Amino acid sequence: MKKSAVILHSGGQDSTTCLAWALTKFKNIELISFDYGQRHKAEIRAAQTIAKKLNLKHTTLKLPILKELTKNALTNQSVKVKAGKKGQLPNTFVDGRNAMFLTTAAIYAKQKGITNIVTGVCQTDYSGYPDCREPFIKSIQKTLQLAMEYPFKIHTPLMNLTKAQTVELMDKLGKLDLLKYTHTCYEGISPACGKCPACKLRLKGFKEYGIDDLIYYR
Questions:
Q1: Which fold does the domain 2-209 belong to in CATH?
Q2: Is the pTM of this model over 0.85?
Q3: How far is CA 96 from CA 36, 41, 44, 159, in A?
Q4: Mean of pLDDT over the chain
Q5: Dihedral angle sign, alpha carbons of residues 180, 183, 187, 188
C-alpha cells in the first residue's frame, strides 16, 4: 500500500466509489470537496456525512470564481438543466472546472507531501464533458508535474468503466452501503428527481447491474 492520497470527493456516486477503491490502496486518505457556487450544497453535505462515518479528514475549498466566470445550469439556478444535443456539450458543463479542481488539489497535496490524487472522472458512461477524458487527465498530470516540479500521480479508477461496472466495483469492494449516503441529482433534492441526466445515468447503472439503487427517487 502506498502511503497517502488526496481524494476529490463531491459526495456523489462516482467519487464515493473512488474513495472505496482508495481505501484498499492507500494507508492515509484525505478528502477534499469544492464549493464553487453550484446550484445546491447537497453533495457537499453528503461528502461530510461519508467522511464522518469513515472517520476521514474532509476539507471544503471555496472556488467562487467559477460562478463568476461561467454561466451554466450548475452555477446558475435560472438555467434549466438539459441534456446536450448530439454534438453539443450539455448546459451542465462548467468550463475549466476539473482543470481548476485538479490544480487546487495538487497545490493542497504538495503542501502535505502527498503525491497521489484520486478523481472519479470517466469517459465511458458520462455526460460528454471533455475534462472527464483520459487525454485531459494525462495532459494535466504532466502540466502539474512540470509546474511544481513534483511527482504527482492522478488516479482515475473509473475512467473506462460503465456505470454498471462502477456499481459492480463498489459491490466487490464491499462498500455498497456507502452509496445510500451519496447525492447525484443535479436538482439537489431528496428524494432525487430521477429525471435529470445525472439521475438517469445512475439509474441506468443500477438497472444494468441488476440491483436497486440505495437512494430514493420521486
A1: Rossmann fold (3.40.50)
A2: yes
A3: 12, 20, 20, 19
A4: 94
A5: positive
